[in-house]
Amino acid sequence: MKHSLTSRLAILSDAAKYDASCSSSGAGKRDSAATKGLGSTSNGICHAYTPDGRCISLLKILLTNFCIYDCAYCINRSSSNVQRARFTADEVVWLTLEFYRRNYIEGLFLSSGIIRSSDDTMGQMVRVARELRLTHGFRGYIHLKTIPNASPALLAEAGLYADRLSINVEMPTESGLAAYAPQKHASEIRHSMGEMRTHIDAGKEKTLSGKKAPRFAPGGQSTQMIVGADAASDRDILGSSSSLYTGYRLRRVYYSAFSPIPDASSLLPVKAPPLLREHRLYQADWLFRFYGFQFAEITADRPDGMLDLELDPKLAWALANRALFPVDLNRASREMLLRVPGLGVRSVTAILAARRHRHLRLEDLAKLNVSLRKVKPFLYTTGWSPTRLADRQDLRALFVPPPQQLSLL
Amino acid sequence: MTMLYRIRLPDHASFEDWRPLARQCFLAGLHPHEVEWCTTSEDATLFDLATTLPPAQTGRISPVLRNTCLALLKSMLRHASKDRFALAYRILCRAQQEPALASITVDPDIAQALRMDHQVRRDAHKMKAFVRFRECGADTENTRRNFLAWFEPDHYILSTVASFFTKRFADMDWVILTPKGSIAWNGERCALSHKPCEKASVDDQIDALWQTYYVSIFNPARIKTKAMRSEMPRKYWKNLPETQLIPQMLADAEKRVAEMAAQQPKAPPKFHTSLQKRSHNDTPPQTG
């Protein structure tokens, strides 16, 4: 049965929506001024938002949702009865360019089910990227999901055209992956990531003669883990992120709350996606990437290894480490200010700039759109010193949201 | 009693328009409270004020600003607020005594200017995101394709976003119309105008494909409309081709999720069974 382009677009974007990545940044500056081409890079523009709260930055589609793998969590696993379809490389190129011209998107995020062999699938994807770049002079963003075990030559060519490459680790632990994706192997995925890291690092260096190395995915690599399908704790998940960020220098790790899918495998839990848990994991991720926290610190005080769902991880950490507070608003280091609940990176920068010229009082923070209620217990300055935190047993109660009556339905 | 002066500027007046007048006021020794800044569309206050500025005071030196302050004034003067010129003049005068003024983020004037600067930059960012080009037929003499867009910015940002669009959509001809002016590009020249435009709409059949994509990429099991609205406020919805579908998507979401929960496991499709058989006969399974 041959589907129309519209219905194939519906099938193949429906199949791609469980991939959380949408970033279109990190590609470096590039535009089509004074060229015959189309497109430019930006520092990440989201062109639309859907009611699930996610943004649309890239045309995120699968080349095909036929797949020879049978990964339990995946809507496209071979044992699923979802409708199957495939695009030709030319159709993906056409859709990308037409969508781009109307300013719907920043570029393309192409992924695929695995058909025939890894090399065959990867070859098709590389062909899309090559035609966009070479035939059509496309200078927008391209993110390719690489296929495990594809040949090094194809990987090198993918890196030449793509801004970012990614490969999903899928499950936070090796045992989780073995249970849900019997045909995928954690060691192979890590090996591919290691290889990509080597290529990406090499792409940034100059050779001895000063010549530039061939381009290789300047936007780096990213990955995704599914949260809530297996029994892994937040400590396991963040431990895994830690090794991915430091060991493989990933740009981003995405956490995707396990979401019910049509025709789901009986192995999977039937429940609403743990959206709050996903949110807390992203907050912890942010603390690591922008606030100087180590992942181990964030979960150190949690007995079951799970993040507090009621309080954000920074506040939970501060309450568990009360001896370090309050800090002097006018003298505390940048590192310490970043650890004060209620202060973000932007407000800390503004405080540092202002206090070089003026002594700051608590009221001044209100002008920086800082919530005084939240920061008050953790800061002191002229005219304000909080009651000793250690004396307040009920401090947590001050921050926990009030209990809500459950809905009857 | 001190003499008061009124200065009228066009609604779209920018830093470049304001600068020579502010300089003249400063050299004449006028205090911020002695100048009333207003725009041409604004009603004048009850009193008739002098519109000819007094001559420069002898020996008064030209005002000087640090780069950070200059950049802040340039940006905040793109804001649509009618108070922007008065605030900018106050900052200009104060900065002569307090050279580091622009860095004092907690100062009320600077906090206000920074808030305006932030709103201007957000408006520009949203314009880059939410402009939608629609194709309006190929020009027969011209091989380049022709597009039209309508957008309603809150502030006077056309000059800051123009280069983004010309560098990105270099190989097509396009016009962006707005109530605050227009930007047009023909591959060689970018024409900016401050003349307000009427809303124009063109039908583009690709919008239907985009709507298909928008509906399909939405996950009905996660509803977070607050997150959506904070990044895509309702004021933008009327000009976006996809947002009219949101009510229906939300109405169907619950039913779709309930169906997923209720479904019984089905027998796998035929090709799965044959794949399984094959992988038992020869490993590895990657070569199917």
Automatic annotation (TrEMBL), chain A:
Q: Which cofactor does it need?
A: [4Fe-4S] cluster
| SMART domains reported in the protein's UniProt record | Elp3
**UniProt-listed Pfam families:** Radical_SAM
Record GO terms (molecular function): catalytic activity; iron-sulfur cluster binding; metal ion binding
Q: Which residues form the Elp3/MiaA/NifB-like radical SAM core domain?
A: 57-284
Question: Which keywords accompany this UniProt record?
Answer: Iron, Iron-sulfur, Metal-binding, S-adenosyl-L-methionine
NCBIfam families in alphabetical order:
rSAM_link_UDG
Q: What is this protein called?
A: DNA modification/repair radical SAM protein
Biological source species:
Acetobacter cibinongensis
TrEMBL record, chain B:
- Region labeled Disordered — which residues? 258-288
Chain ranges of the DUF4130 domain: 83-242
Task: Provide the protein name.
Answer: DNA polymerase related DNA glycosylase
Origin organism of this chain?
Acetobacter cibinongensis
Lineage, highest ranks first: Bacteria, Pseudomonadati, Pseudomonadota, Alphaproteobacteria, Acetobacterales
